[in-house]
Amino acid sequence: MTNQSLNNIEDLYDASFTRNIGVISEEEQSKLKNSHVTVVGAGGVGGITLIQLARMGVGAIHVIDRDVFEASNINRQMLSSVSCLGREKADVARDVLLDINPSMKIQVTHQFVTEENASELLANTDVIIDATDNLVARAIIHRTAQSLGIPSIWIAVTPPFRGGVMSLTRNSVPYELALGYPSYQQELTEEMQEKIHAMKDGRALYSVKHGADQEWAESYVKKQRPWAVLAPVANIVGVIASFEAFKLLINREDLKPITSPNLIQINLADQRLVSAVSPEGGSWNYSTL
User: Which CATH architecture has domain 35-288?
Assistant: First the structure.
């Protein structure tokens, strides 16, 4: 089909995603076109996830992010560039996604997900992808997803070259239980939130055993340095998260997502690179992921 024959948005959609057909069926492409995905976070993992969803032909996306792009994002965030510095991440995401698929329905929300607004922000969608970097927000997101009966996807990027992806459904092990949170079925009091945030400090210190810089880890715990992320790691985690969403959306019998407590483990320093793993005892220690 030539550019001259693309007379309308429907023609453009069909031409854009014609190379999906053969890998997936026309019926499955229609499922993607009629699906709705909510992505919380449009940064390192969220940005590449959004791009992948758009390039698969997902028809509607809700982007939730209240941050703006800054120079420190350029090393890994695929939606960032010098020309975008100071712009809202969610707005940039909207522009990029519409440039890929003009027929896509995009909702943008410049908010942080909280216990007060989560049910409203995360409702009416087929899949929720948690691409945040705040562990308390993650607990809220996955609690809400389970209460709404909506599948959700968790991601992690851990220095130096590691990461993880896990899908959660109504019938799988709840997020906080699967990942060893101290808050399972408890209120998120200020004291509990401090315990949750401390788990990420533990991950920083544990990452030294895998080759991360000890001085960085100690500085992170002291809140003197930000989380360290390399672009290929963040991007492969995002790509895998988008494929887990794809599995949930097309619902093919022979292509099931990796559901909790099992997860997809990424270690680009390992010869296997990516593997599906199960926790001993039925749950993970978040600090060692």
Answer: 3-Layer(aba) Sandwich (3.40)
Record the tokens describing residue 276, joined without a space.
Answer: 């599906």
- Residue 159 has, within 13 A of its CA and on its CB side, a CA count of 22
Confirm if 61 and 97 have CB atoms less than 8 A apart.
yes
Name residue, tokens 């993607």.
32
Q: What residue ranges do the domains of the chain occupy? A: 35-288
Measuring CA to CA, which residue among 180, 231, 171 is closest to residue 202? 180
State the pairing for strand pair 273-277/263-267.
antiparallel
Q: How many CB atoms lie within 10 A of CB 182?
A: 12
Query: Which amino acid, one-letter code, is at 288?
Result: T
Instruction: State how far the alpha carbon of 130 is from the alpha carbons of 14, 126, 158, 250, in Å.
Output: 29, 13, 16, 20
Distance of CA 175 to the CA centre of its chain: 14
Query: Euclidean distance between the first and final Cα of the chain, in Å?
Result: 47
pLDDT single digits (tens) 77-123:
999 999 999 999 999 999 999 999 999 999 999 999 999 999 999 99
pTM: 0.95
Residues 118, 213: Cα–Cα separation, whole Å: 36
Element (H, E) at 129: strand 127-130
For the stretch 214-260, pLDDT in tens is: 999 999 999 999 999 999 999 999 999 999 999 999 999 999 999 99
